[in-house]
């Protein structure tokens, strides 16, 4: 099995992910918009045993917007968005593709929460399936 490396902006947090990702998607939910500062967050889903923090675990903090939403995990030094889902102890973790240092060899397979896309952004016609809410 191969792995990819990832890190935050300041390099304080570094990690490895064992491939493959279970799925990769662009999430347009308003929480991901606020957390990423853009119109969507591109993430890959993994199980906790696929993630290994190699540096800076003490810098990792999270915010959980509500009991029904996943945690938004970030570096407490630079603010880089790192993980989502149920990091560190849930059944699935979402890894933000923007912090990957290597090409995982996988591309987004769908768009979720497209109904939350801001009116000033036109979702590209890229052929990806679109879901109004979450997708299994």
In short:
The chain is mainly beta and 136 residues long. Helix content is 5%, strand content 34%.
What is the count of distinct domains? 1
The overall strand count is: 10
CATH overall fold name: Metal Binding Protein, Guanine Nucleotide Exchange Factor, Chain A
Please tell me the CATH architecture by its name: Beta Complex
Query: What sort of overall outline do the alpha carbons produce when their principal axes are compared?
Result: globular
Give the biggest sheet. 7 strands, mixed
The CATH class turns out to be Mainly Beta
Percent range of helical residues: under 10%
If helices are DSSP runs of H or I spanning 4 or more residues, what is the number of helices? 1
C-alpha-based Rg, rounded: 14 Å
Instruction: Classify the secondary structure makeup into a structural class.
Output: mainly beta
Account of the 3D structure:
Strand 6 (60-63) and strand 7 (72-75) form a beta hairpin. The longest helix has 7 residues, at 30-36. The protein is mainly beta and 136 residues long. The two termini are 25 Å apart. It has a single domain (3-116), classed as Metal Binding Protein, Guanine Nucleotide Exchange Factor, Chain A (Beta Complex). 5% of the residues lie in helices and 34% in strands. It has 1 helix and 10 strands.
